[in-house]
Structure formats: structure tokens, C-alpha cells
Amino acid sequence: FVMGPSSKRRIIWDALSIVVVGHDVLTVPLVAFESLMVGDLWVGLSLCTSVFWALDLFFSFLTGFYSGGAVEMRPAVIARNYLRGWFLMDLCIVLVDWSLILLDSSLADVIGVVRITK
Questions:
Q1: Residue 74 backbone phi and psi in degrees, to 5
Q2: Which of 53, 72, 74, 83 is buried deepest, with most CB atoms within 10 A?
């Protein structure tokens, strides 16, 4: 169940990540400057991107990484590496995103700025 960093599944996931980041890049400024009307479609897309980033957090624990020219595929080592790296930032982004959604705040989309800088 661990994905290699260059596996077909991971490449497809990364390509989908590019699409979601593209969505964030295009929509976050519009929301920040209130140029985008909030409607059912927008709420649905926002929810989809939040679910995607939450799943990405989970999948990061299941994706091998390169270490010293070799691919590390042991789950415990992958988890330790992720916890010491991007995990805290990813977790904060996902928690803030979901907190804002649960509070029904249109500010939830502003968190996309942080995703874009990652």
C-alpha cells in the first residue's frame, strides 16, 4: 500500500495536485478581493479542495521518498521523515481550512495562499 515517489499512482496524484493548486491560484485572489460570488458551485469546489488536501496529508504518510540515492519504502521511516518535514505545515493548513468551513466562513479560501507558497 506504500506508493513509490515515481509510481504511476503518485504521478497521477501529483498531476491532480497541480490542478487543485491551479484552482487555488486562480480563485483565492478573487475571494480575497470579493470579486467572486459565493454560491453552491463555489461551496462545492471549496469542499472538494479541502477534502483533496486532507487526503493528501494522509497519502503523504504512504509515499516513499528518495534518501541517499535509494527509495525509502518502510512506513515507519516514511512517517518519521514526513513528521519532521512538511507535516506540521500541512496539518495547520488542513485544520484551519476545515475549521473555517465548519464555521461557515468565506475566509476559508484565503488559506489557499499558504498552500500556494508551499
A1: -80, 125
A2: 53
